[in-house]
Amino acid sequence: MDLISRVSCLLCVCVLLIFNLASVISASEPIWRQRIRGPDDCKPVVVAHRGASGYVPEHTIGAYAMAITMGADYVEPDLVMTRDGILISRHENELSRTTDVVERPEFAAKRRTQNIDRRNITGWFSEDFTLSEIKTLRAVEAVPRIRPGNARLNKAYDIPTFQEIIDLVKALELSENRTIGIYPEIKYATHFQRLGLAMEPKIVEIFHKNGYIGKNAPVYIQSFEVNNLKELKKMTNLRLLQLFGNKLDMPIDQAELGTGLTFGDMATPAGLANVAKYAAAVGPDKGYIIPRTLTNKLGSPTTFVRDAHAVGLQVHPWTFRAENFYLPIEFQSSNAIYEFGDSVGEIKAFLEAGIDGLFVDHPDILVRVRGPC
pLDDT class for 10, splitting at 50, 70, 90? Predict the structure, then answer.
């Protein structure tokens, strides 16, 4: 899709939002309670990773809106916190990779170094900004070498709040005539808890205030940490998803507590049985399901999906991307990292392994693979 097509699509979305705004405000109950087609009714579930981030700078209203109009079942915002306790959507709390903060002299004094999750990081951090300051920043493409087309939309969007994303979803549910799910990830949970900015109660409060209550709500709340999900289990009946990082790594809260529990331990049959006590689903790195060989080809499927299903867990691996840079070598189309390869071939291999859904940067591709519901 070229730039003109993208912009045209987004303009259409803006018109739809304006047209539906009054209806959203006056709606008596959430769309999902009205038994309109839900995000879990079609398989595999299409989770728009950071929105349609393969086409538009990630975590922007434009990215989420495009994902929905492409047919995504869920939009996936990563959440961090501002100094005044507002949830905003960024993949990192350090802002220089995805905003124009580096170009803003009025914020130069906010640049500092701090330890986050046992790493020293230098930059500008969301927790040092009020929401009003955040709203003056503009979003930029995170990987411009791989997605130069996206970079042409740099500074087109501001940084959305979690509530603004929910408002967008509610508006587009009306024009789409279907329920759209919301799939937030809690970023840096331990770090924000130490700052007195725990995100978990705030996320639950916002969801409940907006009518998302109970295990049937079109919601998954995800985290790479463990104990915050266990605490969420006590706060809400909304579905939870345990993310899995590198098998040798420990979730940061477990590292801080000295438990020695690794993601690899959690991926065993016994480990998955423990996860199933608090989570409804797991989100593993793709390598847990089909690892890559030393020559960057897809290997043979593991038993991960079967083991997870045996204890009642849904499996939504991450992340599927269309560019050659991210694909196994047999699905690459050329040496150009920004060109699209055969992502459909990779996706089909994982579907054959039995997954229930997947995180994808180009949701239109997966929607076409899945076909009509």
Answer: low
362 carries an active-site annotation: no
Options 3.90.76.10, 3.20.20.190, 3.40.190.10, 3.30.420.40; which CATH number does 3-93+152-370 get? Answer: 3.20.20.190
Beta carbons within 8 Å of 244's beta carbon, 6+ residues apart: 224, 263, 266, 267, 282, 283, 284, 285, 288
Q: Which of 59, 91, 191, 316 is catalytic?
A: 91
C-beta separation of 266 from 275 below 8 A: yes
pTM: predicted TM-score of the whole model, two decimal places: 0.92
Only one residue has tokens 């990630």, namely 58
Kindly report, residue by residue over 46-70, the tens digit of the pLDDT: 999 999 999 999 999 999 999 999 9
In angstroms, the CA 159 to CA 81 distance is: 12
Residue 5 has pLDDT above 80, yes or no: no
Closest alpha carbon to 252 in 191, 197, 196: 191
Residue 329 gets which letter from DSSP? G
For strands 78-81 and 185-186, give the pairing.
parallel
The answer to whether 6 and 153 are in contact (CB under 8 A) is yes
Does residue 91 have an active-site annotation?
yes
